[in-house]
Amino acid sequence: MSQVPLIATEEENTMESSICNMVILEAGLPGDTWRYCVEREQLAERSEWFRAMLIGPLAPAPSDPPPVLKLQHIEKRAFDYLLRYVLDEPINFQSVTTARATLDAAHQYLCPELARLAVEHLERNLNSNTVLEIYQGLSLYANYVTSSFNSPTAPPAPGDDAGEIAAVCTRLLLTCLDVIDSEPEAVFSQEHFEELSCAEVEELACRDTLRLTKESILFHALDRWAASKCKRNGVEPSASNKRSALSDNVWYSVRYSLMTDREFIEGPMASGILSSEESAYIVARILGHTENQEGEEVRSSVNGPLPRLTNNPRIDVRMYEDQNCRISKSGKKECQDNRKNRRKECVNQGQRTCARIGNCLVRVLACIFD
Length: 370
Hints:
- By secondary structure, the protein is mainly α.
- It is about 55% helix and about 5% strand.
- The longest helix is centred in the middle third of the chain and has 22 residues, at about 160-180.
- The protein is elongated.
- This is BTB domain-containing protein.
């Protein structure tokens, strides 16, 4: 615990006046705090928030020794930078963690310039390893951003401190989403993903612009998050409890029909999060056998989110594949013809369809009972 000492004065009356004007600010969580002995008037002249807290109607009465105000809502190092900013001292962030905490403080104390400095440091150090720490909770400060379209917002009016902070936070949020879109596999594999809020998980999972090479990566990340949520709530991380931890909209943001049959069976299907009816229909769809009578009967027996199932590639994945594979027009036409022939063959092989689906279910049941 550190403390800035009082500055001694030569004249006794000046000293008494100075003591009455002092207050001790204790910032940080209990047991992990820093103390600052500061002049009320000096801070009140530079910040409306400090003016209300230190000389307003709710300010503590002068005393000797000075009264102590505990600020447990702000991280100690973030408050240190806030105090430096208010006193016009240089700001040099040493870590992403401190800069992110300082951004929280700048938002709470309405310091747009401090927020800008924190955002600039975070942007310089933004990568797949730091993005979730920066992204977490950031949407609370930013202007509304949709999951699919990152459209710019109108600039804030002059003197609008809250608007200026929202503008720089929105810029940072969009940059975070770009990093997550470009490196989702590295991002989703991190433990910090499990600390995101339910709304943040849904925001990321439902993005059409995720450049995922395998949809199972997203499913396993959701599975881990749901298990962590169950543990935080003190309930068993069973398949049913994990299914309830997230909405069907999130679980079906995974493009299951883009998986291979083995990938789906050994992952989502074996987890038990999806019902047996859902799994049976998805396997049939992966194999391309949902156009026959048996496939339609399976679908008709399932109520719930199956209509949300899609086999459309995510936007960036499709663009990435088109750019790198450079498929010619003739090659595309050949692929389309092959798909048509495959569908016709599937329609004429209803019995084989049921057998393959049955084999898949048997394999899953064997894994479960083993």
